[in-house]
Amino acid sequence: MNRCWIYFLLTGLLIAFGCKKSALDDNSFLKPVRQYDMAIEGGINTRTTDQYIRLTKPALSPDSSPVPIRKAVVVVNDGRTDIAFKEVAATPGVYVGLTKSDPNYNKAYILTIKYNNKTYTAVDTLRQVVNIIDDFLPLSTRAMADKSVNGTIPKHTFGYLNPNKWYISYPDLPLWNPSKFDQSKYYSYTHILGSPNSLYPLNNLKRTFAVGQDDYISIYKISLSENYAKYLYSVFMETDWSGLFSSVPVNVEGNVSGNVLGYFSVSDVDYRRYKAKEL
């Protein structure tokens, strides 16, 4: 009889503990472990004279948005002179600077940000881009019976001699504009490193399009410094190439000093335009 009483008591305790609210339901579980002072996007490119850098305070919850950082002092030194950036009145948190068409190749560009009584710095090197060669374009096209052209752009291609970022535009996609930070979702990448091993499966990320034979396709090839290429590869190891057996995601460190998320980049840009039937 006593054994029966003990059995029912243990069963009741298990049910009681099982009904206890899970710790996963606690709102504090969603809070990020690390809270950054700011996030940085953009940098310097050789195709346009207007240069754009965006500074934001990262969001701390899924239902909030990044907050623009206002009234920061932003300066880039290209090894010859200081380039002062001013905040764009119509777009809070976005800063614009004016450069001359005189790239300082293989030299360091130094970014300095002063905000909230703190100073942040970053350095990146301007690597000259190798001109676009037709045989090495990271896309494939196929002529169709109805005289249209179907194209496929993989997000990642491996085994290139140099790492690069690409922006490929067609009639349904606007031309590349460094002031439009939402265009980053259309970038594709060529990597000098090999593809991840089987523990980091590629998710077959690609973009497809259909255009007329005489429609123009604009291709921008954007150089990456060695450190920027390594940074992007590390980011993709935590995002695009994560799998069931991947390690726990980590905070990928950028090149900005202090508690800052992101990477200040300096890039050379080559541009070509083709008719679809030429590809």
Question: Would you mind describing this structure in some detail?
Answer:
This protein is mainly β and 279 residues long. The protein folds into two domains: 38-125, Immunoglobulin-like; 134-250 and 268-278, no CATH class. The protein has two helices and 18 strands. The strands form three sheets. Strands 1, 2, 3, 4, 5, 6, 7, 8, 16 and 17 form a ten-stranded mixed beta sheet that branches. The longest helix has 17 residues, at 2-18. The radius of gyration is 24 Å and the shape is globular. This is DUF4249 domain-containing protein.
Gap from first CA to last CA: 86 Å
SS summary, helix count:
2
In terms of DSSP E residues, the strand content is 35-45%
Average pLDDT reading: 86
Number of strands: 18
Organism: Pedobacter frigoris
Protein name: DUF4249 domain-containing protein
Tell me briefly what this model is.
This protein has 279 residues and is mostly beta strands.
Key traits:
single chain, 279 residues, mainly beta, Immunoglobulin-like, 2 domains, 10-stranded mixed sheet, 5-stranded mixed sheet, 2 helices, 18 strands
